[in-house]
Each structure stands twice: as C-alpha cells, then as structure tokens.
Amino acid sequence: MVFLGLTEDKRTPGLDPSPATALQALPRDLAVLADEITELAAHLNAATYRLLTLIREFEERSGWNGAGLKSCAHWLNWQCGINLGATPCRCASYPPLGRRR
To answer: For 3-60, what is the HEC assignment?
Structure first.
C-alpha cells in the first residue's frame, strides 16, 4: 500500500492512516469527542478571524499591488491557493473592527 508517496515499510511501523483503524484503536467517550470537536472549531474560528483581519489590512494597504496582479483576490489565489470566487476581498463581510481612516 502507498500512502503519501511512501510505501508501508517507509512509514512508522504500526501506523495505519485509515479512519476505520483509527476509530477502532481509540474508542473515546462521546462527551470527550464532542469537547474536542468544539474546541477545534473554536480554534478554526479564531484563526479565520485573524486571517480575515490580516487580509483586510493587506488589502487596505495595497500589499498585493506591484506584483502585476489585478487585485488582492488574485494575490490570495496565487500565494495562498484561495479560490478567486471564495476570496474575502470580493465581499464586504470583513470582521467588525471599525473602519480605519
């Protein structure tokens, strides 16, 4: 079997990346599992907020300009792999930080 370009003998012995094996090896209490999910979701939300605030400042300061690109959305696509249709530069839903002057 090949996983991420490595054959089984090149990976750490005993590790099986399949989800079924992971579930069988680590039976968890559902409350603990729910806590882990909500904690991770909180981290993702915080990271998303931070990312949007950085993008907002980058766009306001025209950090993308000068690279031969048409917009901040194009820079995000080029540098971060964010789909052009999904870039936060295309909408007005920035985090409510108050507008800078």
So the answer is: ECCEEHHHCCCCCCCCHHHHHHHCCCCHHHHHHHHHHHHHHHHHHHHHHHHHHHHHHH
